Every structure is written in structure tokens, then in C-alpha cells.
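[step 3/7] fold_predict: job queued, chain A
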Amino acid sequence: MRRTVFNEDHEAFRETIRAFIEAEVVPVYDEWFAAGQAPREFYDKLGELGIFGINVPEEFGGAGLDTHKFEAVLYEETSRAGVQFGGSGVHVLLALPYIKMLSTDEQKKRYLPKFVTGEEMWALAMTEPGTGSDVAGMKTTAKLSEDGTHYVLNGAKTFITGGVHADRVIVCARTSAPSAEDRRFGISLFAVDTKSEGYSIGRKLDKLGLRTSDTAELAFVDVKVPVEDLLGEEGKGFYYLGHNLASERWGIAFGAYAQAKAAIRFAQQYVTDRTVFGKPVASFQNTKFELAACQAEVDAAEAVADRALEALDAGELSPAEAASAKLFCTEVAHRVIDRCLQLHGGYGYMNEYPIARLYADNRVNRIYGGTSEIMKSIIAKSMGL
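[step 4/7] structure written:
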């Protein structure tokens, strides 16, 4: 089946990204892996390449496009090479939609030019210790000062991807207590400057996978946030968070599909080169059947991921459809990558092989952005169950 989701502009972008990865990432990726993060200056290179500005209006230094298809190409190419672009994904996929949707003209002039160049890297701080998927249960507070010039932020966040290198973080905090009728009421969003007094980065978390992506704990002790850095209207944060969940879940779905596709590439290359009992591993019927089954699953996941991409670009991707795509693609990736690692034998367990890193990287896809169990609940609700 011929794919129709990409055009010649996307394929030209693919060639540029593939060359960039080979030149700038692959030679040093082992160093990033050992350090547990990509270096801060790498994001400057991504800014120079124009990756951060694709969906930013031209007046702020971007390309002015309104599409996720270039992001999709990025997912495919980084997975194909067995690398990650550090924590930069949250900068574009998670933070940018909130800036574009909620910022005033004055805020856009302050935020977006530095966003495009990578001078200011952004992250999103939603999850707290003890809350997980229960966003409405957050305890972080932001109280307006008596003179009305700033909010005073107190609390803690965890699992914040990009949190170590971030220059600004969109922090979700309670500006008022939940109401008896709606416990989701009273949450607001703030674009917090990480250089603010009282803002601190706790541990850089030691993760199973996504080793080059910095993930941190954050703490706020009487952090003064100017009222000019409130995003959108006070108290409507939960609604805003829900508005962008479809694009986030599409990103996880498409990334998982791309990882599964890459896993087949790694396994096929390995079994072709590896000889057992005097024959290539690829010549055994079991190998052929396993890879064929994996290919069939990835073909299906590709169709689901592409359909969701088209719906997202058209502004028609519903929460249930996004949940369905995420559930299906992440579960397919889990099965495919596991089978492809098995075909590597003992070497599949060694971190020097990309399949081992891919196995660890992939596991979080069924957890973050809403667990598979949450996705099933959303889909069931849409079915009237």
C-alpha cells in the first residue's frame, strides 16, 4: 500500500534530518547515553536547523505552517537511527500548543522568538508525586499577591521531561480550591522562568529508557510569577490541558509506530548478518514467520497512525480516536519490539545494540500521556459503555 500522507516537501525534510542525524547525533550518541542527557548546546543546533519554528507564525521567526507532518518525519527518522533528540520533543509537541492557544500578543512577542531559536527551551510540569493520572488532585498552589502584581507559587512536580535544561516551564497550579460540584475547577497555567528565586531542580531521574532525555523533579518555594506570565484565564487550566491531549496522544502513537518499524529494520539486518549452524538466522522458517507477523502488525499501525495524523491536521481528531490510536500503536510496538529483540538472542539484551535501547525506550509509551487502562476507559465511554 502506497502512503499518501507525505509530499515532496516532507521527503526533502526527511533527507535533511537523516543527514543531520548521521553528522551531529550518531557519532556522539553513546556519550549522551552515558551522561543521561543531550547537551544543552544541541538544542541550539536544532533551532538553527529550523525544527522548533515549523509551526510558529512567520512574524515571530517561524515557518508559519500548521501541520504535524514534519514532526511525524522526525519520529520516523530518529527511530530509524536508534537515537533520541533529548528532551526537545516536549518543547514542540507539548509546550508550543499552549503558547499558541493561550498567549496574548504581548506574550507571543516575548516567548516565541526565543522559542524558535532554542534560546529558551520549554517544558510542561503537570504530574506531581502521588497524583499520576489524577491531574485534578494536584496540590501545587499559586496565590495572587495582595498588590495583584504576581502569584506566589509553592509545591512540587515530578517526571518532568526536559526539566533539567528548561528555561521556562508551563506549571499547572491551583489558584483556588476545587468546588463541591467540580474537583477540576481552580487550576491555572503559568509560564514560569526557571531562573526565578525559589525555583529549584531536584534529582535528575534515573530512568529505565529514554536515557538521553533529561527528566527531573521540580520544587517551588515562594516563587514569584508575574501576572504577565499567566497563560489564558485563571481557573480554566484543566480545560486547556484536555484540549491538547489529542495531539499529545497522537505523538506518542506515531512515535511508537515509528519505533516498531525501526525494530524490524534492526532485526532484519541482524538476522541477515548473523550465522548459526552454518546458516544465516534469516534463512530459518521461524525467523521469516516472526518478521512477517511483525511486518503485518506494523503495516496496520502505520495506517492507524497516518489516519490519526490526517485527522489531527484537519482539526478533527477526537479524544476517543486519539486514545484508540495510542492504545493500538503502543501495544503493537510492545509486541513487535519484544519479538525483534528475541531474534537478536543474547545480543538483544546488550545496550550496545539499538534494539535493547529501543526496548527500554518504548516501555513508557503505555504509561505517559495516559496509561493504556485510561485509554480503554476513554474509548469505552465513547461507546456509551
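[step 5/7] annotate
The CA atoms of residues 199 and 364 lie 27 Å apart.
The first helix runs from residue 8 to 25.
exit 0
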